[in-house]
Queue: 2 jobs
Job 1
Amino acid sequence: MRHDQARWTEEGAYEPLLSETRTETAEPGDALPDDLTRDGLELPAPAEPEVARHYTRLAQMTYGVDSGPFPLGSCTMKYNPKFTDALAGRPEGAVHPDRPDEALQGTLAVCHGLQRHLAAIGGMDAVSLQPPAGAAGEFTGIHVARAHHRANGDERSEVLVPEGAHGTNFATAAMAGYDVVEVPAGDDGRVDLDALRAAAGPETAALMLTNPNTLGLFERDIQAIADVVHDAGGLLYYDGANLNALLGRARPGDMGFDVMHYNVHKTFATPHGGGGPGAGPVGVTEELAPYLPAPVVEEREDGYRRVEPLRSIGKVHGFHGNWPAVVRAYAYIARLGDEGLRAASANAVLNANYLAERIDFDIPYGPFHHEFVASADRDAADVAKRMLDYGVHPPTTKWPEAVDEALMTEPTEAESLADLDRLAEAFDQVARDDDETLRNAPERTAARRVDQTDAARNPRLSWQALDEE
Amino acid sequence: MTGDANPYVPHSDAERATMLDAVGADGVEDLFDVPDGVRFDGDFGIPSRDERSVRREVRDTLGANADVTEFLGRGHYDHYVPAVVDDLADRSEFLTSYTQYQPEIAQGFLQALFEYQSLLVELTGLPVANASMYDAATALGEAALLADRVRATHGDAIYVPETLRAERRAVLDTYVAGPGLTVETYPTAEGTADVAGLRAALGDDAILVYAETPTVRGCVEPALSAVGDAAEDAGALFCVGSDPVALSLLERPADAGADVVVGDASVLGLGASYGTGLGVFATREEYLRQVPGRLVGASEDASGRRAYTLTLQTREQHIRRERATSNICTNQAHLALRAAVHAAWLGPDGLVALAERCVELPRNLAAEFDGVAGVRAPVDDRHPFREFVAETARPADEVAAALLDRGYAVHAVDDHEVQVCVTETTADETDGLIAALTEVA
Amino acid sequence: MSFDVPADRRYRESHEWIRSADGRVGISDFAQDELGDVVFVELPAEGDRIEQGETFGVVESIKAVSNLYAPVSGEVTAVNDALDQAPELVNEDPYGEGWLLDVEFDEGDLDALLTPDAYRAQIE
């Protein structure tokens, strides 16, 4: 399959900037005295038909999951069910959080319902929906760990992170004031238990783990890993990015994890929206429940109430997180139920294994689950650019570093057999394309290869900056 | 429909059999490498239901929310969102796309974010604006971390007004815990900064001074530059909190000496949504490399045309890891798109007009409140923006409860103070509110 | 591919060099090639002190960020301001115009460093 993406061009650019079509300057009136107001506001002033055309063209020059396969590893770019769109919008969602609880019983019921479902799915005892993204969930979880240790009179200074972990894990630990200790993987791509034993000690606040890991491998020694960390007095944190592989078959709570975050924009199909909003709810065992950020929704005799847990770490968001993602996730889980969730993980794993079988690339580590990491024979970034010409979004490139020229690939359960075959064909076609073709790629996308070096050396971050040149 | 337990899995049984055959497995279960000791064979107790049932159930559940008119604000606001926003922003190419790591195929979204950044540059007067943070509170937290990182500042104290919303203060406290910074307050008067009190409070440990306009009590801050001067004299960065509608009218933060601007842009494109936010973060050129979050830059592509790309990604977690400026990854990009569409639809005239209504409406309503026996308004001798505080002879929580019974929600902010927000979406209901207030005050 | 390894320098295994004659410090040809297009360099200020073996700054390309490790200890006497506007000098002329800083140091510190031959052996 080839994909010729829509492209609007005009004199040295693609679709013109709104500022290049028509700008106007609006002066403040006399609602406020002059010394409290700004000078004229100069902004684009398109009429509604122009707004419609501008953004329609921009949409045509954007590729989403509805356009074609999007097998980014650890992103779980699965189909976003349309029926959740209406539920996320107005008027039902258009409430102010400062209503008293008794006037919010509907919203709180949905929140409570999602808390309950997520707790069940993760094998946890309590859940907060406040973190507005996975990284925020990690931040919350590490702060919960911190509070737990302090309550025990313990000032631990280190967080352990496997070398192949997502960048957010490292950044989160640093943001929370911890030193990061990297735990190497063994030859089999899993956490090296001996190295972990050597690294874990009285300074260990937590080990952050994704399971299956970023190579798609299940950490078989998870119980031993949990024991090592717990024996050292640390907590075991689960990064929920790869939960789609385990839905209904294994739960972090049963593996010894004490605290976890869920990525609803991954596992629970809420739309990525070009970079959010998602949500990163946090689940904990009963022992850690008192530390969750406020509010947590509880069901009382007289209705739902937002409560502040007894030893709450405080807040990680000004209100209660991202409502649109919360209600969509709730609706998705309600639609699928137990059976549908189990079918998600089953087909996610089947699809990844089938795709891996079909492509002619070396996959050094296995047995993998919902994602695998293939090794490109040439620069993975160039391979990715050429895949765009075949109508697929490429996998994640150059990570994890355990695999040379890594292509971390997660098709998800939402790819049909025909689309998987097309995706496999795209991989193999690129492998057959010559070096020059790869260097010149992409040719059929709206834009040709963008010069990222110049963008970094000479940052131009607004139309005002362009005007100044 | 495949008749499967999961309607979003496009496999027939025959197709699944073909695939299993190809991988050499008897059943899907064989593909799982999960030790028996941690397998889960139970149920979550969640039945699956068809789409129609789930839609009805969720709608009915949400219908349990009380049917009240919200005169609520204090950091989360409702404005009219035109139909084009849903229609255009929810196009599935936008909605189902990912972070733009492959710019060639995502020029559309990248340009929309570039335009959004430019909107904030015009509103704030600062040259660098990112493509979003989670919300106003977390953006303030990130501003504190930036102040800690930059070489220009020496110290560890963040100064905020004593009236800062408790929730924002709580988030700030969480963010500063890691680097071990402290949060101090400075006094306010008439709902805005008490500059003399601020100067007295500022120590040489100050690295950031924060002020909001409008303030949480709905007052336009008349001393913004003076607060900025005090910050500068103390060797601290000056951070202003505001929103794009307010900034369409109020003095530009850059002109008042702001080094950083934070706040919430969900006043455009989203409206009330149970507190969902769109964090703003803008700053000076010299702090460019300390900025958290995504930045979209203009460059050229291989055809020589102007093209857009995420840039300066080495600041971010996926490259810099523990040295990243922030751990932020997924943010509020789609809401930034919605805000950009809304701003384009309004144009500068529409934005200024909306902002001026945000002054006139509360001014007029406060006067009407003042005419009700047992009520004095406005409490703060300041120009209002969207909201104002009124003093009630009767205890405020009783007044608020009684109003709620009659279908109107207001804030009770102190023993005898209520706060009322009014925008164009509730302007038609103010007569009813006044009538109810007359009964309950 | 053969990388430049000038004889009048000493090298750290982390690819920094120092010119013993005048205390000029930079990164090697091998390093700039590994990094790819340099987009930014973060350096200390004049008057700051750097410690042998510890991080004194960072060099960024579009795909990576690398710590810079001090080859010697001492006070920074000059910093290459040209890199602000032209970070590509590090790629184009890593031993000349792409220098990073000058440091006043103790001769004894050089003993811990690699000779040009030893460094060449390491990178090949």
Job 2
Amino acid sequence: MPVKVMIPTPLRPYAGKRASAEFQAKTVGEALGHLTSEFAELRKHLFTEEGKLRSFVNVYVNDEDIRYLAKENTPTKDGDTISIIPSIAGGSHSTRTTGRRTKA
Amino acid sequence: MADETALWISGHLAEKIRAHGAETYPHECCGALLGRDSSEISGTDPEAEESTPGREILGLFPLVNRRDDSPRNRFSVTSEDVLAAEKNAREHGLEVVGWYHSHPDHPARPSEYDRDHAWPWYSYIIVSVQGGAPQEMTSWRLNDDRREFSPEGIEIRHRAAV
């Protein structure tokens, strides 16, 4: 039975401009796997190269943050809504941690 | 992503961003950029880049920097803040098209930390605040490959914000 994945605005250009997609999935991880299989360009924005969810990517099942559930193993059931909600971070570089400079 | 993107903003709102940066100095300020985006950038379809991207800032949603530990060189906006900003935008018939923050005593250039934490599509306005006085203001968009930002021109539009 399908679960609905809500795609945040900044990622819609990589998901055929869709605001949501539905998948058969028993867990959050399975649903996100289907999502990034269908829209491969989403993967690098959601996951690190090691395959972990990026720290500023927040995933909710209905209104529950999966960090407080079973993370990507959080079970899903028919009719559940999985929401991908951004958090935003940044700041001027600290003097000790600069890596390669970005293009000015 | 189109290279020649431009961001339209009224002089009044640009001043409000500068003033927010001065107000929170030496800490970083942050907030959401509310507006409209009429561009047809698909990220996957090169033909779509032929259309002229149009993005206009029509409101701001100032936020409290959640980084209590290092507010001088970091800012953080929680997912709850993001949802609040999106709700505020919807109430005004707008959407969140980007974010602004200040770089106290640093140039208005994105840091490696900025890039590592950035989302695509959003406009990231950075205002440099030197010794408490706002200076240069720039805008940036993350490239599709996440490797670097592209500069985005800021066009000051001299009419009242909606």
